[in-house]
Amino acid sequence: MPLPASDKDIDQWLVRLCEGDEQAVIAIYHGYMRSVTAFVRLYVDDVVAIEEIVDDTFLAIFSKPDQFEGRSSFKTWLLGIARNQCHNWLRKARKEPAINARTDDAFGTLVDPTPPILDHLEQQQVRQIVRLCLMRLPEAQRQVLYWVFYEELSVNETAEQVGCAPGTVKSRMFHAKSRMADCVRRRLDGGIA
């Protein structure tokens, strides 16, 4: 199995992908699948839909790899495709609500997965509250949280990824954290968020 692709070597992998190299498909998928999945979870909370959107995102690039023009990093371009796929799915879901849609906890990895039973129930409730509060943030604030906390980028790197000034990133982070804290606090105290 090839090493996962990264933005450093993506040009080589894209050339190989255009030549029909199956190893390039595997390398690109393994290099970016976790980031794309985490990003899609910012928009969609249906497990089946998340998998579908991630697959559709990769199919879009695998079918037309020559569309990447290098005006941004490959990951930024890829996440832009993922965002468009999410918006398309959400638009369709509003028209045709899913029956028995299953959901997954996007923040399951934030809490120890093997707590005692009573603690586990409490932690599930907290994760649900955090997820609800996160989904109530404006898209711009969710994106900044993604880049800073999941991708562990600096403020300047995040500003480059989202296309705004570093001061704007700091402002969005401040407001996102403030809104999250307020929402979580109200939900935990039994109030309405």
From TrEMBL:
Residues 29-95 form the RNA polymerase sigma-70 region domain. It comes from the Bacteria. SUPFAM superfamilies: Sigma2 domain of RNA polymerase sigma factors, Sigma3 and sigma4 domains of RNA polymerase sigma factors. GO terms for biological process: DNA-templated transcription initiation. Keywords: DNA-binding, Sigma factor, Transcription, Transcription regulation. One of its GO terms (molecular function) is sigma factor activity. The keyword Membrane does not apply. Residues 128-180 form the RNA polymerase sigma factor 70 region 4 type domain. Signal peptide: none annotated. Belongs to the sigma-70 factor family. ECF subfamily. This is RNA polymerase sigma factor. It comes from Orrella marina.
